[in-house]
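REQUEST FORM: STRUCTURE PREDICTION
Request ID: SP-0412
Submitted by: Lab K.M.
Chain count: 1
Length (residues): 196
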Amino acid sequence: MPLTTLDPNTALLVIDLQQGLVTGNFIHPIAEVINRTRALIDVFRVKHLPVALVNVAGRPPGRTEQGPRVSAPFSAGWTDLLPQLDQQPDDLLVTKRSWGAFATTDLERRLKAQGVTQVVVTGIVTSGGVEATARQAYEQGFHVTLALDAITDIRKEAHEYSISNVFPRLGETGSSQEIISLLEGREGPTGLKEPA
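STATUS: Completed
RESULT:
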């Protein structure tokens, strides 16, 4: 579903943009994903909307045919968020031990305590952490928006499958600029248009 609107209290979820994961062989230039995510972060912060910076530091204990992809012990700095995200004191910091950002964390409680009803999801990888987080957000009752030009994967077919077949069933999709335009055109709590 194309992007139509953003709720008054929408949060940005930045998934797995951390030192140990951004060196993968992604199908899109990772610098572009980071830059678009940062542009979204900047607007969310200006609008005083929640920004959640999520990293991964483990995995669920169940067996899989492919074996562990992310498991401790990690090298020094592996879980560190990218400096380009410019972590701020008001940001929600979330460390997950699963693909999605809700299953092994208190993110749902923290967002709902702030009155959040919608989330915008960015980060890596499209068919992993991004998709799992979008699924979990949808299942928890949040409206979901995915910034398609601020996500990427290491497998083209997986990325395209998520975008074409999964995301339309979970929420709306759009470009980071479309999301920014909706945010910048929004009225503030006083009913007056906020300065961009």
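NOTES: The chain has one domain: 10-61+73-184.
Reviewed by: T.R.
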